[in-house]
Amino acid sequence: MEKTNKRIVIALGGNALQRKGEASAESQQKIADETARQLAPLVMDGYRIVIVHGNGPQVGNIVIHEEAINTDDVPSLPLDSCVAMSQGSIGYWLQQALTDELRKKELDNTVVTLITQMLVDKNDMAFKNPSKPIGPFYVTKEKAMIQSATRGFVVKEDAGRGWRRVVPSPKPIEIIEKDAIKVLINSGAVVIAAGGGGVPVFMTKDEGLHGIEAVIDKDFSAAVLADLIDANKLIILTSVDAAMLNYGKPNQQMIGKIDRSKMQSYIADAQFSSGSMLPKVQAALQFVNKPGRTAVIASLEKAAEAVDGNIGTIIHF
Amino acid sequence: MEKTNKRIVIALGGNALQRKGEASAESQQKIADETARQLAPLVMDGYRIVIVHGNGPQVGNIVIHEEAINTDDVPSLPLDSCVAMSQGSIGYWLQQALTDELRKKELDNTVVTLITQMLVDKNDMAFKNPSKPIGPFYVTKEKAMIQSATRGFVVKEDAGRGWRRVVPSPKPIEIIEKDAIKVLINSGAVVIAAGGGGVPVFMTKDEGLHGIEAVIDKDFSAAVLADLIDANKLIILTSVDAAMLNYGKPNQQMIGKIDRSKMQSYIADAQFSSGSMLPKVQAALQFVNKPGRTAVIASLEKAAEAVDGNIGTIIHF
Q: Of A6, A47, A74, B33, which one has the greatest count of Cβ atoms within 10 A?
């Protein structure tokens, strides 16, 4: 197979960056090193790679830090700015790790992170139903209500652990910096873009772009990006080996090679849980909307095999 | 004059981003809008622009937030990661503002921020003499000494206002992501790079790149970047109209057009104060090391005139 110039978008889940109890920069950079060792062979094989990473735990910690002090001189920054900050820190860790790994293999591809704005629709239904918990827990309802009254936060009780702000998770539509991604990928650079799903922005005719306090599912953003660069493959790397039929039941079964319509029928059968596997499958199907496109859902530890199409759930048109 | 394809590096000082008492994202984005209105005409005129911004007040506030909570689950991130975060937030504000301003002029250039690592020399003398105060004030010497003992911070008393961490400010040597900057600028994109002077990294033969807790003078980084892309002009925008002779004295006099060797003689005469104008003049001279190169030191409000060479201190070879 001629791999050169084949374009691949890789969506990296949280486990590619931060494991439980390992939130320090040092720990996250060590995990980034492991991730880089998984991905570097793909660059060596001639694939052109764009990486879209999640940012759940990282932006969560940024928000907790920001909320810890909120004065005129040292104000808390809003969530859109925090997402941009997380693109900075995570992108830095990943690009440093991958640059090092490529240099060890005597490859000189530049690895670079682009701060990326993602257009969303202000009329997206998600804005009517904020659902993603973010930031610190408020121990009492009263404290939560103060945040609600003074900051306009929507707060909800979180499974008995206290109260917490919830934000909308709208669908990504378009990448504002799309031309830069295309130019760089065509030049042979490894691009890290749309981190955390991208900084959510909407557009008005008169005033242009505005950030909005929301978070975007990074797998859907990876699907948008893969479509944008007309990638050959979208690889969604996560903590499990594949999508499963009858997950958690005695007759649980891994889904291997499958076509689009069959996978859609599994969604109709409610085979995938809405909080975890369902959005990955939906993002995969969103990308695989024409012949020649493949989406793979596989575990991070097997990135290279996933790209070669021998492992995980492999969805064809 | 044929302006098309002329390459300009613009170094934006702190006043281009944050004014005293206006630290909120909303305020900083409004100032970014003003800055964008200054810079958009240059793009319209066909100049290819790379923007290097400072990050002093912004990374200061990020560090204060990070230091406010430091637990296993929510650890403080080190300064190199904080610089990357500031590249994310400031870059996002600037690229959004400039994208909007260009679209109003019906220009479709992509504006994009690159997370940028800047190589420094681990043997730079600056590491022996940390001098840049950063982060929160420690009210008592005892509190400062605890940070010193537990975190390895170098702390100094800051003009009677309490104790504070100081970090080194090494000279920038090389931009790790240089190829991406070149590719993008050649494509017509407006590039924001080396924000805050870049994330300081050093390199070891065996292990590759390592972040280091330091801050880099953004004017020197802009000079490195301008040399890298063989820019025609380096424009250092600041809060004053020009470099001055006999600054603050009755015979104070603006320096207009001047050649490199004359400007060097003024440095030898100690005409410029080490904390403010001297590094700008030194950065300008570092760039103007061959015929055809010009560096301008001017006020942000007159960016367009500064580029046209009619205002500010204009240093030729």
A: A47
Residues of B whose CB is below 8 A from A91: 84, 88, 115
User: How many C-beta neighbours within 10 Å does residue A74 have?
Assistant: 18
Q: Which amino acid is at B90?
A: I
> Please, are residues A224 and A173 in contact by the beta-carbon 8 Å criterion?
yes
Q: Are B236 and B11 in contact (CB under 8 A)?
A: yes
Sheet holding A208-211, edge to edge: A174-175, A117-119, A199-204, A208-211
Question: Domain spans of chain B?
Answer: 10-119+171-316, 132-167
CB B15 within 8 A of CB B239: yes
pTM of the model: 0.96
B10-119+171-316: CATH class:
alpha beta
**CA distance linking residue B10 with residue B142, whole number of Å:** 43
B209: which chain A residues are within 8 Å (Cβ-Cβ)? 96, 99-100
Asked if A60 is an active-site residue, the reply is no
DSSP structure class, residue B29: H
pLDDT of B158-208, one tens digit each?
877 889 999 999 999 999 999 999 999 999 999 999 999 999 999 998 889
3-state helix, strand, coil in chain B (%, to 5): 40, 25, 35
Nearest CA-CA distance, residue B290 and chain A, Å: 28
Q: How confident is the model at residue B3 (pLDDT cuts 50, 70, 90)?
A: low
In whole angstroms, give the CA distance from residue B190 to residue A208.
18
Single out the residue of A206, A176, A36 nearest to residue A114, CA to CA. A176
How confident is the model over B234-274, as pLDDT tens digits?
Answer: 999 998 999 999 999 999 999 999 999 999 999 999 999 98
Q: What pLDDT, on the 0 to 100 scale, is given for residue B22?
A: 87
Closest CB from B91, B183, B211 relative to A115: B91
Does the annotation count A171 as an active-site position?
Answer: no
ipTM of this complex: 0.96
- A132 carries an active-site annotation: yes
Q: Is B194 helix (H, G, I), strand (E, B) or coil?
A: coil
Is A208 within 8 Å of B91 when comparing Cβ atoms?
A: no
CB proximity list for A179: less than 8 A, separation 6 or greater: B110, B187, B189
